[in-house]
Design a protein that fits this description.
about 160 residues, alpha+beta, Aminopeptidase, 8-stranded mixed beta sheet, 4 helices, 8 strands, about 30% helix
């Protein structure tokens, strides 16, 4: 699947161990509590849906990571575990591209619902999800680690496919 947005050509590819170092660099630059190498490798071993969205460079140039997502298929649902847009590429519509691709894949898997958790303090991400049709359906108390040894609530959101 290819996409063109903001005059940038992009493509999806499976997130592979070969690109994991680059993904970890993006992850660490995007979050105060990033996923670890172990989180990603465990997801690979479990066979989760892991897609890398990369910008296509000129011939001979390495592709640029625009973002990636990790999702777990259930019986009739898919749970989005991680979706990240590289900080330098945020606010350009790439989250929508990835959410659309995830919804298409999920429907193809027979899923009826998409689920996710998002930090209660992350209003921008909640707005992105809402604008893509997700509805707030609950709250998980003390779900995420936060600074100072405290924990932060997660807003649970879902999308009927």
């Amino acid at each position: 699947m290819s996409a063109v947005l903001k005059t940038q050509e992009a493509q999806f590819e499976p997130l592979s161990a070969a690109r994991l170092g680059d993904v970890l660099a993006v992850e660490n630059s995007a979050y105060t509590h990033p996923w670890t190498r172990g989180n990603f490798t465990d997801s690979m071993l479990q066979g989760y849906q892991m897609q890398l969205l990369s910008g296509i460079g000129a011939p001979g140039e390495a592709s640029t990571i625009l973002g990636y997502f990790v999702a777990m298929k259930g019986v009739d649902e898919v749970h989005l575990l991680n979706i990240t847009v590289a900080p330098a590429r945020q606010r350009q519509g790439w989250a929508r591209v990835m959410l659309d691709a995830l919804a298409i894949w999920s429907r193809g898997q027979g899923a009826q619902w998409l689920w996710l958790e998002v930090r209660a303090s992350n209003a921008r991400a909640q707005q992105v999800y809402s604008s893509n049709g997700f509805k707030r359906v609950g709250l998980r108390k003390a779900y995420y680690p936060a600074s100072g040894g405290v924990r932060e609530d997660a807003v649970v959101m879902s999308l009927k496919l």
